[in-house]
Every structure is written in structure tokens, then in C-alpha cells.
Amino acid sequence: MANEISARGHMMRAAMKAPYLERDEERALAVRWKDERDQEALHRLAAAHMRLVIAMAARFRHFGLSMSDLIQEGHVGLLEAAARFEPEREVRFSTYATWWIRASIQDYVLRNWSIVRGGTSSAQKALFFNLRRMRARLTRDGGSIADPGRYAVIARAIGVSSEDVALMDSRLSGPDLSLNAPITEGDGDSADRQDFVVCPAPLPDEMVGEEIDRERRAVWLGRALGSLNEREFKIVAERRLTDEGATLESLGQKLGISKERVRQIEGRALEKLRVELVKTQHDRAAFV
Question: What are residue 182's DSSP bridge partners?
């Protein structure tokens, strides 16, 4: 902590000592860097604008991140601006660099503020960085962000849904919780938070066991079906092995026999299947 404060103080003192640049001098340095890749010109250009980086980083210090890290990320944005700056457009470098510095710091905040990544779209980013300010304004005016209709007002102003506002507000209202964080129960015993997160899906070993049993049943059934003659197999297949089983009447018309005869053949075929399956596997519960 002491080293961080010392390093931050050194950066701020160096920034304060750096001389301001006149417009013509600033443009000349930008041209030297762009055309000649003059490292000294880049250094002077960047050093003269570190005040801007520090001021921009200070706006994001309430997110609980290290001020030194915010300044360093802003410096990355400053160098990116220097690499892309076009002096011939006659725009002051500070005006152009402000956007890149802010974008770099915002990206760093979004990546490090929470373990769970948020703000993946431009609208979500705007919501993340503006919601805290809006919430403070509502509180100052005597209202609450949870009042009916408040979410809708903020959603219209930023261009997101009310559900997005509610979700972001809940995220900003509390810190991340580790699933490995201990919880003390009433009897004094402790357990991890993940022990209370119930998943409705079967356990992996149960899923594997069920898949193995399913494959075995399919093999046994295939062998048993081989004991049927052609007409018996056709009746069983169309009556029992399709999602919508054929009716006795439709099968009778197709085979040229009565529906009662179809029922008799089906019953005989099912009995043959049962006998063959029991020969293969004596555990009748396997076919329930």
C-alpha cells in the first residue's frame, strides 16, 4: 500500500512539472511522432497530457479500484490516441485523446470491477457508468430508484429495458459472493455456499449409468425382435415402436386382415418378445 501511494505521488508530481504545450508546439510534436516515429516527441506529448489522464482516472475512483492502476490504464489510452492522432485535422490533441483515455479506463473498470463480466454492449456500458450517478440524484431529490416507474424512466433515458436496469441495480447494490465462502449453520457447523446451490440435473455418474443401461436394453430388444416373423415385426414396429402408434383398423386394412386378427398377432408377438428378453436377462425389472 505504501509503495502504491509513493508511486502514485511520483506520477502526479511528474505530471504537474510537465510544461503545457502551445498549439503549434503540440502539432509539431504530433507530426514528428507520426512521420518520423520520434520517441522523444511521443514522450513530451504524453508527459504534457498526464494531467488529463489523472483527472480522468479520478472520476472512476469510486469503483473501488487502485488509483495507480486507473492512471496506468488511462496512460495506455493516451498512447493509443497518440498512435491514431492526425495532426492535419487541426484538432487539439487533448480533445482527441480524452475519448481514448476514458474508453481505456472504462474498459479496465468493466473487466475488473466484478468477477462476472457485464456491460457487453454500448447501452449496457452506459447503464453501468450512469446508473450510480442517477441513483445518487434520485436519493438527493428524496426519491428511490426502486419507486414504481423509476426503472422505466432510466431505461428510456439510456435506451435499455427496465429489466436491464433492475438487474444492473441489483449488481451494483451488493458485492460478488464466492461459492466457496463458508456459511455457519444454526448448530455451529460450517459449510460452503456452493453446498446450498441445488442443481436439478442428474449427477454425472447417474447420467452415464442411465446411458449404459439404455444401450444394453436396445441391444437386447434388437436381438428379441429378430425372433419375430415379417408380419409380427411389422405390427409391433408400427404399433409400439413409433411415436404415434398405428390403429388396429388401419393395420388390418394394410395387411388385408381384420383388426381382431391384428390384435391376436400383436399379443402373440409381444409374448415371444417377453420370452426372448427373459432368456437374455433374467432380471425382469430391467425391462420395466
Answer: 192
Question: Are 97 and 129 within 8 A, CB to CB?
Answer: no
**What ranges do the domains of the chain cover?**
2-112, 122-173, 204-287
Q: What is the pLDDT of residues 114-172, one digit of tens each?
A: 766 665 667 777 777 777 777 667 666 665 555 657 777 777 777 777 777 777 777 76
225-259 pLDDT per residue, tens: 888 888 888 888 888 888 888 888 888 888 889 98
Residue 123 class from Cβ within 10 Å (0-12 exposed, 13-18 middle, 19+ buried)?
middle
DSSP 46-76: HHHTHHHHHHHHHTTGGGS--HHHHHHHHHH
CATH-assigned architecture of domain 2-112: Up-down Bundle (1.20)
Q: What kind of fold does domain 204-287 have according to CATH? A: Arc Repressor Mutant, subunit A (1.10.10)
State the amino acid at position 77 in one-letter form. G
- If we measure between CA atoms, which residue out of 25, 110, 86, 12 comes closest to residue 53? 12
Q: Yes or no: say if 169 and 135 are a contact pair by the CB < 8 Å rule.
A: yes
